[in-house]
């Protein structure tokens, strides 16, 4: 009788200490998350002008942390959000890198080491990065997952983890053709060479090679508008990294990916398999007659390491009708469709993509196998021709955690045990209470035995 009571007590103790550890780990109430708001350096844009800026070593949350969500928007000198029809946010991206400690200028340094996302495209390296849709797109990484950054064990000696911000914005106040300027139509930009001075390819009608930094889109005659100072205001939500969090890998797929990669012997070759942008040709007469002006683009990409999809979202430009990814057997993995604005206020600008729908599969319900061939599909309306459009798909993947047997053989390396070890005081307390209880029970037993003896 007393023995079973003792075991119940011990069981309750063990359960309650585990429960304490688990709830601390999951942080379900969100109370331990921090929010940091930063401003990029100012950039000046006048009507029709383009800014494509790269800011190294920007202000960013430091330390070993989990990134949980982000937000960004273009604001003016008074901090007021600027609508997309005045300043079109073509894209912005955050790139993670290690820079030398004490370095003054990372921009000119050959010593910096970029930490790319885990996706297959060498020229799409950002960790975080979207465009006009930022204001109404969910970016929250669900618990217990997080984008792990700043792990001191991974940062090389003499280096520091830093972030590079790229902002590409087009001022379309007073321009002749707003959509044309935002689609970087070469005919509106009066350029014949790209940003590096190389002549444009024959037949290149629009895209980033025509709207690089300091290019100028055609403005209506007689339009008067001054230059203005703008900023990207970006907000990061994050938490201190704790071992019970599960890190996710970032994969960015590109629907223009042909699978071709520069060979190591010819690494100067810039003809990557990922073109990032593409042209949507106008609908043919058959499509027009059927009222089906739809351009469907597909790519097949291999995911070397699989896992559970935790979050997914696509990136498309105006004209986009939705994008999806599928597994090798055709099962749907995630789809994401654009939200078009229908008003004037920032976040709801008519005709612009102001948000993208996202996927949050129930943890463990949607997974990709190691080496699985994933199909990316991007749909655009081709009722009009579009230039410089994108079809990116961004997913967060949690790789399977070690199984119990490997977990035991790895001993204290697993997050669970590390977390327990980090909470040594819980164990110590549990141990202490156990000792007290055991001692009390044994004393009681001795007393009662003595009592019985006296009476026996
Ligand atoms: C186009 O560029 C050329 C030189 O690159 C310049 O002479 C010409 O004035 C420009 N045209 C317009 C309309 O800006
Ligand atoms: C893309 O278009 C095809 C053909 O109409 C359609 O079956 C599919 O559902 C579309 N996908 C998305 C994500 O919109």
Automatic annotation (TrEMBL):
Q: Which chain positions lie within coiled-coil regions?
A: none
Alphabetically sorted, this entry's keywords are: Membrane, Signal, Transmembrane, Transmembrane helix
Q: Which residues form the signal peptide?
A: 1-25
- Stretches that traverse the bilayer: 424-442
List the InterPro entries hit by this protein, alphabetically.
Stress_up-reg_Nod19
Alphabetical list of Pfam families matching this protein = SURNod19
User: Would you tell me the protein name for this molecule?
Assistant: MtN19-like protein
What organism is this sequence from? Platanthera zijinensis
Q: What is the lineage of its organism?
A: Eukaryota, Viridiplantae, Streptophyta, Embryophyta, Tracheophyta
């Amino acid at each position: 009788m007393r023995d079973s009571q003792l075991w119940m007590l011990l069981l309750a103790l063990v359960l309650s200490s585990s429960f304490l550890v688990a709830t601390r780990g999951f942080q379900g109430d969100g109370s331990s998350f921090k929010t940091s708001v930063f401003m990029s350096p100012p950039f000046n844009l006048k009507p029709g002008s383009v800014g494509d800026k790269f800011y190294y070593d920007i202000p960013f949350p430091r330390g070993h942390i989990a990134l949980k969500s982000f937000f960004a928007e273009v604001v003016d000198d008074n901090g007021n959000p600027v609508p997309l029809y005045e300043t079109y946010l073509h894209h912005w991206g955050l790139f993670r890198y290690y820079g030398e400690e004490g370095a003054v200028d990372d921009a000119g340094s050959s010593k910096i080491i970029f930490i790319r996302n885990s996706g297959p495209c060498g020229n799409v390296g950002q960790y975080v990065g979207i465009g006009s849709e930022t204001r109404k797109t969910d970016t929250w990484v669900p618990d217990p997952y997080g984008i792990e950054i700043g792990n001191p064990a991974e940062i090389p000696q003499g280096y520091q983890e830093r972030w590079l911000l790229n902002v590409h914005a087009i001022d379309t106040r007073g321009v002749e053709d707003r959509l044309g300027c935002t689609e970087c139509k070469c005919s509106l930009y009066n350029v014949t060479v790209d940003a590096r001075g190389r002549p444009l390819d024959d037949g290149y009608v629009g895209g980033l090679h025509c709207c690089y930094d300091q290019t100028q889109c055609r403005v209506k005659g007689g339009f008067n508008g001054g230059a203005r100072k703008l900023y990207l205001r970006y907000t990061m939500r994050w938490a201190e990294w704790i071992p019970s969090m599960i890190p996710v890998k970032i994969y960015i797929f590109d629907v223009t990916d042909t699978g071709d990669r520069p060979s190591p012997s010819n690494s100067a070759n810039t003809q990557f398999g990922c073109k990032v942008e593409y042209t949507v040709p106008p609908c043919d007469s058959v499509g027009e007659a059927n009222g089906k002006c739809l351009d469907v683009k597909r790519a097949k990409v291999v995911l070397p390491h699989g896992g559970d999809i935790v979050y997914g979202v696509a990136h498309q430009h105006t004209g986009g009708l939705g994008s999806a990814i599928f597994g090798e057997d055709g099962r749907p993995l995630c789809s994401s469709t654009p939200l078009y604005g229908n008003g004037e206020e920032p976040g709801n600008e008519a005709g612009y993509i102001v948000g993208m729908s996202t996927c949050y599969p129930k943890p463990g319900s949607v997974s990709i196998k190691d080496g699985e061939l994933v199909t990316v599909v991007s749909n655009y309306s081709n009722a009009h021709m579009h230039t410089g459009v994108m079809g990116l798909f961004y997913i967060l993947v949690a790789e399977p955690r070690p199984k119990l047997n490997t977990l035991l053989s790895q001993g204290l390396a697993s997050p669970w045990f590390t977390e327990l070890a980090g909470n040594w005081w819980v164990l110590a307390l549990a141990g202490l209470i156990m000792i007290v209880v055991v001692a009390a029970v044994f004393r009681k037993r001795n007393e009662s035995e003595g009592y019985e003896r006296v009476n026996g």
